[in-house]
Design a protein that fits this description.
By secondary structure, the chain is of the alpha/beta class. It contains twelve helices and 24 strands. It is elongated, with a radius of gyration of 24 Å. The protein binds MU-OXO-diiron.
Length: about 400
């Protein structure tokens, strides 16, 4: 009987057997505006090996794609590159239905899988750099600790020159196309940057080391097969090159002006700052939080030198949307930023000071004291905003030359 879902052939022995999640829009705080995919791969030959699984609700879809290749046969082994539930959620169901003799994972992967699913899984640990033949098919395993979990590893299939890179070099993008060369470059770069900025940014130094390590190993990679987004069968070095660039967090003459406003006063200050920056040669991204999501702010900050944040004061505090964004951005540990805080107030005025303190606490080099305007900014207040922007632009250009 024909299966409702079909596998897609990737190479001589490899099939894509994952699932497309068209509906997901929130990935633990990251707005996945174009959905996502959970890629799993079936390696066939002398034995059948499943590389990762999918998020639990998509198990039937994955199983159907597996069945479309091997019918009712079982599989010999599952390689779990990453224990996060978008890839391991369906692992217990896969074990029950496909009967693998073993599950290979890293040492930290074994701990994470046991912590998630109990000790009933029969796990076999592979070491960093280990090569192993599974049912006559050779694989090499490389740990990628903290990229982005302690358990993370990637698996290389030298026979077909496929690197199963787990979350590495992926993107959240649902598509009917399975290969990157079928998708416009602009979308690949946008979603790749968004994924990097929102997930990998705190681990930038490790990304740099990983890319150097992969280069030093001189792996021949004809297919780059991440667990999210399209598979690369052409230009396999492109996403690693972009990751290497993004990991440096080299700032451009660009600033993000993010703010939340109650009665447009903080917004008026934001406009004066944006105009001042633009007049001085800085490209400005104007991001009112009534419209923009925290993950868009993180994405725009990836290559920005300037980080200006504004909030009105509400009940002696910054506005909740600004607290949300600043908390989120702080966790991402952005580097090489300079900026300032601003905001309007009525009678107490803590908002802009609190924003200033949060920017400082995340290592933003402050170009001035927080600007505060009572109720509605007057001409003097707006002039102060423009002066701050002019001062900041000079510092940004000096800062860029230093980097
Ligand atoms: Fe796609 Fe870290 O899970």
């Amino acid at each position: 009987m024909s299966e409702p879902f079909q596998a897609v052939k990737v190479s001589e022995r490899v099939y894509w057997v994952g699932a497309v999640d068209w509906n997901i829009r929130d990935f633990h705080g990251y707005q996945t505006g174009r959905g996502s995919t959970y890629n799993a791969f079936l390696v066939t030959g002398e034995s059948n090996i499943l590389i990762d699984t999918v998020k639990k609700p998509f198990f039937d879809e994955m199983l159907s794609r597996v069945r479309s290749v091997i019918g009712d046969a079982g599989i010999d082994c599952i390689v779990s590159n990453h224990a996060e539930l978008d890839h391991a959620g369906a692992l217990p169901d896969a074990v029950r239905n496909l009967g693998p003799k073993k599950i290979l994972t890293s040492k930290m992967g074994a701990r994470a899988l046991h912590d998630h699913f109990g000790t009933g899984l029969d796990l076999s640990i592979v070491k960093d750099g280990e090569s192993r033949s599974i049912g006559g098919i050779d694989f090499t395993f490389l740990e990628t600790k903290m990229l982005h979990w302690p358990d993370s590893m990637v698996t290389y299939l030298p026979g077909d020159r496929v690197l199963f890179s787990q979350d590495g070099f992926g993107m959240h993008l649902a598509s009917t196309e399975r290969f990157s060369d079928e998708i416009p470059n602009e979308i690949l770069e946008q979603e790749g940057a968004k994924y990097f900025a929102n997930i990998l940014l705190p681990f930038s130094p490790l990304v740099t080391k990983l890319i150097e390590r992969i280069k030093s190993l001189d792996l021949r990679i004809d297919i780059l097969a991440p667990d999210h987004g399209p598979i690369w069968r052409k230009d396999t070095g492109r996403m690693p090159e972009l990751w290497a660039k993004w990991a440096l967090q080299k700032p451009k003459a660009k600033a993000v002006i993010v703010f939340d406003s109650m009665w447009q006063s903080t917004e008026t200050m934001a406009k004066a700052i944006a105009e001042g920056l633009v007049e001085n040669g800085i490209s400005a991204r104007f991001m009112p939080l009534q419209v923009f999501h925290r993950s868009d702010v993180a994405t725009e900050l990836l290559d920005a030198a300037g980080f200006f944040a504004g909030s009105s004061t509400l009940n002696k505090h910054l506005l909740p949307r600004m607290a949300d964004v600043l908390t989120y951005i702080k966790g991402l540990k952005p580097r090489n930023k300079m900026g300032a805080a601003f905001g309007s107030f009525g009678w107490s005025g803590e908002g802009s000071q609190q924003v200033h303190e949060m920017l400082e606490s995340m290592g933003v080099e402050m170009v001035g004291a927080p600007l505060a305007a009572r109720y509605v900014p007057d001409a003097n207040d707006l002039e102060s905003c423009r002066q701050l922007a002019t001062q900041a632009a000079t510092r940004i250009f000096e800062h860029i030359e230093d980097k």
